[in-house]
Design a protein that fits this description.
single chain, mainly alpha, Methane Monooxygenase Hydroxylase, Chain G, domain 1, 12 helices, globular
Length: 273
């Protein structure tokens, strides 16, 4: 006998009611793929990047909320949010595994269709870096053709970053860590912040919340670095050392990005402990 879910109370008709697809806006999402070639693998390429952008949207949602909670001194909810960001970065890392099933021959079939589009131009990726604290005004330029994107990037560079909010917690705990005078620049190593963190790590019982906060940032950056590394290896596996579609040097550029450290104080202090 065939199974009828309606007999257990499942609703089977949705005329005038909100369905699963309505709630999620699936009509828009599932019709947002527009391959520009006949190549089979272009669909993979599009969906991999679209889903990555959706995960980045959630990461920004969590990072912004975590920053607000940290600034307010409400650290416990922030821990949950930052832990979620690390898991999101894990999902982004897994996406490279799917893309790596595409070979150089398959990518060549549709690469010309990309024009000058490149992940280098991802607004959300740039915003993740800016929120974390890796800020470079020059990186706003790829978005100048979209004023509605430039405005929030410029505004972000004028407000305390996630790490600035964390450093404010150190000050609130009595550590002498002065605020930065240039918010539109990346966080460089700071001897006073590193000394403060060393004290926290040497006495975790007294400073447990600050210690946990620091480790949540390290977790996030750990996965973020893996994402960058997987990006490099995926690109090299598929296009070798060709120039990127957006005009960058490709693998060489991505390798330089591996040297960028979001929270240098938290990594350098480990040598001192």
């Amino acid at each position: 006998m065939s199974y009828d879910p309606e007999q257990e109370g499942a609703r089977m008709t949705f005329q005038g009611r909100m369905s699963y697809g309505d709630y999620l806006g699936l009509d828009s999402i599932l019709t947002a793929q527009h391959p520009r070639s006949q190549a089979h693998d272009e669909m993979l390429f599009i969906i991999q990047h679209q889903t990555s952008e959706l995960w980045m949207k959630l990461a920004l949602h969590e990072m912004a909320a975590a920053r607000d909670r940290i600034a307010a001194g409400d650290l416990q909810p922030a821990f949950k949010m930052l832990a979620r960001v690390a898991r999101i970065m894990e999902q982004l890392n897994s996406a490279w595994d799917v893309l790596r099933t595409m070979t150089p021959s398959e990518y060549t079939e549709f690469r010309q269709s990309l024009g000058e589009s490149s992940g280098f131009q991802s607004y959300q990726y740039r915003m993740i870096e800016f929120v974390a604290g890796n800020r470079n005004p020059a990186m706003v330029r790829p978005h100048e053709h979209r004023p509605e994107l430039v405005a929030p990037l410029m505004a972000e560079m004028q407000r305390p970053s996630l790490y600035d909010a964390v450093l404010a917690r150190l000050r609130a705990a009595g550590f002498e860590v002065p605020p930065r005078t240039r918010l539109d620049q990346p966080h460089g190593p700071d001897a006073r912040a590193r000394t403060a963190w060393a004290t926290v790590y040497r006495d975790t019982r007294q400073y447990w919340e600050l210690y946990e906060l620091a480790e949540k940032l390290v977790d996030f950056e750990d996965y973020f670095r893996r994402w960058r590394f997987n990006h490099v290896t995926t690109v090299e596996r598929i296009i070798g050392f060709k120039r990127g579609s957006g005009g960058t040097s490709g693998v060489s550029y991505l390798r330089r990005m591996l040297d960028v450290v979001l929270f240098p104080d938290l990594w350098e202090l480990r040598t001192e402990l």
